[in-house]
Amino acid sequence: MTSNSYTFALVGYGGMGKQHKKVLQTIDRAHIAGTFDINKQRQEDANNDGLHTYTSFNELVSDDSIDIVLIATPNDSHKDIAIDAMKAGKHVICEKPVTLNSKELEEILDAAKQYDKVFAVHQNRRWDEDYLVMKKLYDEGVLGDVFHVESRVHGSRGIPGDWRHEKAYGGGMLLDWGVHLLDRLVLLIPEKIKSIYCHLSYVLGNEVDDGFRMQVSFESGKTALVEVGTSNYISLPLWYMTGTNGAATIHDWSMNGKVVTVTKHEDHDATPIEAGAGLTKTMAPRGELSTQDTPLPRIKTDIRDFYDNVMKVIEGKEDPIVKNEEVMRIMKLMEAAFLSHKTNSVIDFE
Ligand code: NAD
């Protein structure tokens, strides 16, 4: 191993633990010392995947060769594992949602300060191409003045797995997917949030939400709709963004979608069309030459940049890409969303 390499240990070897292993094994200066999972089968999985397994969390954090503990366990356990790992002298990468609420996150951040350790949250969906393309269109003003954004994920398989169904483990879709969509939305529209209104859905009768719809109003008057659905047999687009000069949609992770912008070609006053049982001029289509369709831009993205950034933060060479104050803001935003649902009211946010 070279002197600038880092030794990782994985706590939790389920779906996401295995994914971290896969990515870390492609990073030259990352080395995996081993894993610990409370489930015997998962320990066996790790052994079968060629990883060393520790017999306990204490044994894992007592290994002096480990620099970074990567937490991929259910949400309710993140706080204690993170604090104990930092107390034992390790830097920590933690899965999202970082904790169940902002108070727990505060405790972690206090511990990071106390033990002088780097604590980073894996908000990996900031590296998704669909988000980065929308951000590029927004930042470059391609659609003019953007006034509304919709960001959603729709599926029809209900809540997956076991612990995600239970409140005690931090289950539910707002914490699971909402944390990603909200994290990206507030980076896309870097403004103060004026207010939010959120409705959680319980279509499947679980004790936790199986989806939600949340309206976000920004200081400038821009609005957003963020939506997660797990009983949607037809999926609406991942993204819809509309501005004074055009609109863009991205339908799916294969990047189907398009950008429509207004041309300089004059569009004469519309002629009314027959629509349904009536006539409309307002909703008549535009003249063909007055808009143009262009394909979505494409962006190369690599999630390994996240891990690389964490190592450089430890070395003091870079600022964190995922900043803990951003993570805290999203925890508070989700708390406001739960409150909005409970009280069926618009919540003033910032
Ligand atoms: P999972 O159920 O597949 O795996 C969790 C594993 O943690 C299980 O093997 C379980 O036995 C183990 N575990 C539970 N408590 C433990 C403890 N105290 N010590 C050690 N091991 C323990 O769940 P998952 O889908 O891998 O989710 C794990 C975390 O990763 C969650 O926080 C989830 O939100 C997050 N996640 C993130 C993404 C992403 O894209 N960033 C995707 C999926 C899951």
From TrEMBL:
<dbReference type="InterPro" id="IPR000683">
    <property type="entry name" value="Gfo/Idh/MocA-like_OxRdtase_N"/>
</dbReference>
<dbReference type="Pfam" id="PF01408">
    <property type="entry name" value="GFO_IDH_MocA"/>
</dbReference>
<dbReference type="Pfam" id="PF22725">
    <property type="entry name" value="GFO_IDH_MocA_C3"/>
</dbReference>
<feature type="domain" description="Gfo/Idh/MocA-like oxidoreductase N-terminal">
    <location>
        <begin position="8"/>
        <end position="121"/>
    </location>
</feature>
<protein>
    <submittedName>
        <fullName>Oxidoreductase domain protein</fullName>
    </submittedName>
</protein>
<dbReference type="GO" id="GO:0000166">
    <property type="term" value="F:nucleotide binding"/>
</dbReference>
<dbReference type="InterPro" id="IPR055170">
    <property type="entry name" value="GFO_IDH_MocA-like_dom"/>
</dbReference>
<feature type="domain" description="GFO/IDH/MocA-like oxidoreductase">
    <location>
        <begin position="132"/>
        <end position="248"/>
    </location>
</feature>
<dbReference type="InterPro" id="IPR051317">
    <property type="entry name" value="Gfo/Idh/MocA_oxidoreduct"/>
</dbReference>
<dbReference type="InterPro" id="IPR036291">
    <property type="entry name" value="NAD(P)-bd_dom_sf"/>
</dbReference>
